[in-house]
Write the structure tokens for this entry.
Amino acid sequence: MSDDLGAADEGAKRWQLQAGVDRNAFYLIAGGVVLLACFALLRAFGNPEGSPGRSVNFATAGALFLTVPFIVAIYSAAREGFVETSHGGLHIKIGFLVDTTIRYVDMEFIEGPTPRPRSTYGVAPSYRRHEFSLGRLEKAVEIGLCRRVRMGTFLLFPFLFVERIWLGVLDPESLIEELQSRTLSGSK
């Protein structure tokens, strides 16, 4: 996409995505992985030198320790995700996971806030239903698209084409009003 499409305009507004990931869950997950890595490391030292068990446990401990920075990166991306109006469309950024702009002309309808009982937390693609859910969806903004739009990045979700996007933001009513005014006023 062009830089002009994603450039913020003077009247740009930003909404924080509800991540649904609290700090305690992060500590439990990251701490659990570190604990498992330490356990594998202790098991490795308990095996005789040159044994397959020692090598496998060292490899397992190393892989688990290398997973921790990835967990931190995903947590940071989820906590800092936002939705922002730009000159040509709605810019969605969630760290390295999602960075895309949906053009106003591609938006068929904007509805909500819709409660979704089986809501997701964070980023959840649905290849079968052609949907992309972003944020905590207790009160979701639903955006229907005129055509299927590619939403994934080169490495994450490379084959994801969506017809519907669900956004969980902190103030869904104001996002709905802003999008409806931009799609109706000719900001296309």
